[in-house]
Amino acid sequence: MTSLDIVNQQFKRSLRGYDAAEVDEFLDKVAETLQIFKQKITDLEHELSDKEKALSEYENMKEDLHEALLIAQKSASDRIKGAKDQAAKMISDAQQKVAEIYNKAKDDEEELCAHIEGIRGLRDAFADEFRSMLNKFDSSLTQTFAASRCEEAVESLLEEPEAAEPETEEYEEEDETPQKDFSKAFDMLGVNPDDLKHKK
Questions:
Q1: How much is the pTM?
Q2: Where are the beta strands (DSSP E) in the chain?
Q3: 3-state SS, residue 158
Q4: What pLDDT, on the 0 to 100 scale, is given for residue 160?
Q5: What's the number of CA atoms in the CB half-sphere (13 Å) around residue 184?
Q6: What is the mean pLDDT of each run of 10 residues along the chain (200 residues)?
């Protein structure tokens, strides 16, 4: 039933019925009220339809946002995991490099110690050989010196001179020590003292 149906509604007349004018006026008010409520219902239906559309859009946006949030979380997790993996790899590489440097330094130290020990061995061997050579040279020199006439000449120089008579001893005023006679030593060595004077 519409408001137009109410306005056009016809009633039978009777002797003891209602006043037709009052009934028509009431029906007009009912029709007007019905029209008002119908318009409100229509407006509310339109508003509800708009709200439903907006809600549907919000639901779609919510799903999109939820999906984007999941993607962002996954991306963040992947980035965090990648950063952790990269940091772990850097630490592992650094530890490996430190170990390599330490091992190389240790090997270099051992090699250097071995070289030092080798040099010390060579030094000791050279010192022993040099001492042996010096001992041989000293022994040879001693034997040569003992076998030569130099020893006799030296001994003759070390001998005390024979005591001379007081009247024949001559001393220099500035030297109270008698001069030794080197002629015997020169004779033993086969050297002419005059030749030495000419060389000077």
A1: 0.34
A2: none
A3: helix
A4: 55
A5: 12
A6: 67 68 81 88 92 88 88 88 89 91 90 88 86 83 66 60 50 46 64 59
Residue 14's CB is within 10 A of a number of other CB atoms, namely: 7
C-beta of residue 140 within 8 angstroms of C-beta of residue 132? no
Q: Which residues contact 154 (CB under 8 A, 6 or more apart)?
A: 185
pLDDT tens per residue, range 72-122: 888 888 889 889 898 999 999 999 999 999 999 989 888 888 889 889 888
CA distances from residue 174 to 54, 162, 170, 171, 178 in whole angstroms, order as listed: 143, 22, 12, 8, 11
Q: What whole-number distance in Å separates Cα of residue 40 and Cα of residue 44? A: 6
Distance of CA 152 to the CA centre of its chain: 79
Which tokens is 178 given?
Answer: 């008698």
150-158 and 20-147 helices, crossing angle to 10°: 80
